[in-house]
Backbone:
């Protein structure tokens, strides 16, 4: 039983009134119970780590299978987290599809990494009573006390920053906050969180048509994509090489090189799009040389999208992720497709090619 296993883990809970300590659906601790526990640990200078875990794309479970199925998924995940964490920590529900994990006495980076890695690698094996339900993944952000901060509010903020970074890297991952990498990372403003698909697609059209300087318009749109979604690398591949190349500040790999242009036509589908959560899943479509070039550049996940209009082809938008498997989202792919098509139309009606534009040098973008 989840409730008893949570209580038995740490002495703190034996001294508390737990009559209202459990979430009625999942039976893990409530948010307020976890917050009280964290305040106790801080007051007594007891080291710990805080995980904030978000179920990836949970809305699609509710919308596609109903809220009853969604409730079943949440209760299964709560049990899975409690079993996986074991005696190393306790689990709570923050609300909705977000969970909390507090690991008392554990704040060493390697120890925290092992816990996150175990959860990340095994949750895909979780099965539900309804066999039709898809497998689920989690995005997790982690902050450590007192290594990262001794302030209560700041601890939550740092864990949230790490979670945000994980979501922007494609979900299905965990990020441990490190000041050297994430200090200046800004959480999305409320305005950004409210960006609707309609707004984003209108922004593409406006950005690419509001100026007579086509090179600057393309650069601004690509810059928006790479920073908004935090891609490691983005460029336009042409027969003569990479143009409009942008490398994110946080990318572990920096020295990207051009790929064999002829291969793109073999990879993309009839709509001119190809994407891979794992590059190996496209191995049957790619030549051995192409795959080796990707491996040399540490590329794990990628998107390629044809830029064209009518009978003209101008190149391919190329996006690379180098240190994590990225779960490409439908809305995200639609933005890339829209960008490629509008660029193609602008080139066609301006009688230009990518090579004829002033695309500039390689840019390093984003914040550390």
Residues:
């Amino acid at each position: 039983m989840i409730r008893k296993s949570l209580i038995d883990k740490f002495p703190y809970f034996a001294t508390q009134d737990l009559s209202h300590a459990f979430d009625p659906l999942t039976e893990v601790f409530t948010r307020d119970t976890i917050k009280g526990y964290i305040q106790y640990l801080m007051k007594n200078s007891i080291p710990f780590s805080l995980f904030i875990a978000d179920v990836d794309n949970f809305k699609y479970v509710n919308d596609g299978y109903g809220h009853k199925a969604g409730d079943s998924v949440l209760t299964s995940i709560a049990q899975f987290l409690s079993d996986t964490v074991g005696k190393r920590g306790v689990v709570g529900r923050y609300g909705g599809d977000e969970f909390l994990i507090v690991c008392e006495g554990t704040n060493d980076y390697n120890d925290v990494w092992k816990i996150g890695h175990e959860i990340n690698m095994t949750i895909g094996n979780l099965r539900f009573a309804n066999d039709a339900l898809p497998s689920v993944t989690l995005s997790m952000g982690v902050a450590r006390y007192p290594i990262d901060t001794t302030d209560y509010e700041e601890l939550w903020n740092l864990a949230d920053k790490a979670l945000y970074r994980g979501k922007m890297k494609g979900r299905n991952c965990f990020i441990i906050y490190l000041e050297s990498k994430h200090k200046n990372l800004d959480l999305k403003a409320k305005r950004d969180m409210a960006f609707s698909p309609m707004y984003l697609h209108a922004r593409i059209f406006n950005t690419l048509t509001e100026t007579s300087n086509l090179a600057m318009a393309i650069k601004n749109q690509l810059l928006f994509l790479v920073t908004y979604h935090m891609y490691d690398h983005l460029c336009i591949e042409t027969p003569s090489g990479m143009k409009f190349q942008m490398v994110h500040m946080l990318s572990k790999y920096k020295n990207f090189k051009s790929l064999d242009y002829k291969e793109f036509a073999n990879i993309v589908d009839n709509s001119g799009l190809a994407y891979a959560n794992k590059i190996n899943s496209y191995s049957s479509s790619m030549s051995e040389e192409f795959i080796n070039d990707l491996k040399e550049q540490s590329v794990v996940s990628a998107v390629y999208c044809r830029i064209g209009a009518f009978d003209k082809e101008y190149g391919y938008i190329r996006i690379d992720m180098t240190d994590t498997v990225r779960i490409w989202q439908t809305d995200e792919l639609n933005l890339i497709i829209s960008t490629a098509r509008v660029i193609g139309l602008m080139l066609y009606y301006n009688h230009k090619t990518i090579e004829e534009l002033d695309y500039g040098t390689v840019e390093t973008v984003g914040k550390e």
Observations:
- Residues 48 and 105 are 5 Å apart (CA to CA).
- The chain has two domains: 2-183, 191-365.
